[in-house]
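PROTEIN DESIGN WORKSHEET
SECTION A - STRUCTURE
LENGTH: 167
TOKENS:
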């Protein structure tokens, strides 16, 4: 059984102008560690810099990248943990094809019954979505691929980067 310990603190950010008033934002920072395996399991900060280094979780079918590079608010604590023998958790490499094969499509459609696999949706499945993104090492396997309707596929991708301003 894992014994996960949470280290949480608040860190003041740089002075910034919000609605015409100079303010100093305060960010909630969190690090979760497993003392038995000496792994840093999860890091999180509310700052803009860190939010753009990871994918924001949306429901059960968006990948939350828990292996992000720490921001300046997290770095001192992460570095201190690393100096005493902890290491950042790394994803296990996935096995499988980089392209969606007919075999994977058949397996996913069989599992879903042809309907959208988003919770409480009864729509017809029209697209295939990788739970773990290809850029994060995700492969097209039956376990990693979800059958979604167009609305929920767009919903997932439209909300992944909700903290990022458009060009």
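SECTION B - SEQUENCE
RESIDUE ASSIGNMENT:
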């Amino acid at each position: 059984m894992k014994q996960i310990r949470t280290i949480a603190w608040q860190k003041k950010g740089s002075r910034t102008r919000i609605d015409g008033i100079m303010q100093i934002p305060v960010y909630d920072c969190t690090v979760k560690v497993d003392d038995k395996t000496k792994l840093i399991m999860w890091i999180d900060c509310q700052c803009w810099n860190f939010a753009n280094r990871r994918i924001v979780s949306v429901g059960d079918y968006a990948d939350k990248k828990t292996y992000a590079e720490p921001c300046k608010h997290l770095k001192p604590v992460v570095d201190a943990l690393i100096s005493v023998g902890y290491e950042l958790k790394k994803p296990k490499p996935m096995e499988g094809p980089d392209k969606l094969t007919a075999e994977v499509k058949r397996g996913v459609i069989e599992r879903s019954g042809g309907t959208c696999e988003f919770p409480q949706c009864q729509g017809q499945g029209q697209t295939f979505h990788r739970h773990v993104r290809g850029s994060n090492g995700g492969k097209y396997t039956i376990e990693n691929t979800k059958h979604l309707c167009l609305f929920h596929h767009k919903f997932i991708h439209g909300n992944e980067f909700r903290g990022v301003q458009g060009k």
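SECTION C - NOTES
The two ends are 46 Å apart (CA to CA).
The chain has four helices and eight strands.
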